[in-house]
Amino acid sequence: MKMTDQELLAALADPAEDPARLERISTEIKDRFGLLSHRLGKAVAVFGSARTGPPDPRYAVARTLGARFAEAGFAVITGGGPGLMEAANRGAMEAGGTSVGLGIELPREQSLNPYVDVSMTFRYFFARKLMFIRYASAFVVLPGGFGTLDELFEALTLVQTGKIHEFPVVLIETAHWAGLTDWIRDRLQGQGFITAEDIRRLRCTDDIDEAVELIQQCHLRQLAQ
Fold first, then answer.
1. What angle do CA 20, 24, 28 make, to 5 degrees?
2. What is the distance of C-alpha 113 from the center of its chain?
3. What is the H or E stretch that residue 99 is in?
4. pLDDT attached to residue 78
5. Dihedral angle computed from the Cα positions of residues 211, 216, 218 and 224, in that order, rounded to the nearest 10 degrees
6. What whole-number distance in Å separates Cα of residue 110 and Cα of residue 82?
7. Domain boundaries along the sequence of the chain
8. 120/126 Cα distance (integer angstroms)
9. CATH class, range 4-8+15-224
10. Residue 185: other Cβ atoms inside 10 A
């Protein structure tokens, strides 16, 4: 059976069904806005691999990260899946914070991890991504695959184009991201596709306390605006 995104994006999709699709999209966004707007205060979105389990040291890093953000008063939002998403949710829940999982329907069923206390599942990727941007005041990005990179570059594009302001994007694990950040600087900035200011919007650190402090300070500036 096709997923809803597949039906929407299929080249041969029947245009006559578009009004019904638009109604489903509108309902999904409206319902999720209503649920989250009453449950969250300040929040940070944490992204990372679904394939990195507890034996990997990065799992412990993500768990600690979730706990530190919870202790600083932030809700922690993830994609609700396993791996590093689970670890961040777990840390937030164990620290007594609000742990949010925004799941997505996939051809291979992926259930929400057991460490979320606010959860919802989306049919449409773009509706889900909208919720991350709408309710998080920062993105923290751990190592991951295509999905993680997609979320990273969408956030950077929105900041670069002024669609969102004072929105820090923090990469955790400098050794992992070094090749990408060097390429961005050498190729993209070097050929004039982006500016030095665009690069300064992207922060990279191995220090969890630094990441939390950076986002806390940015949140205070947001409140002062």
1. 170
2. 16
3. strand 99-104
4. 97
5. -170
6. 8
7. 4-8+15-224
8. 14
9. alpha beta
10. 14
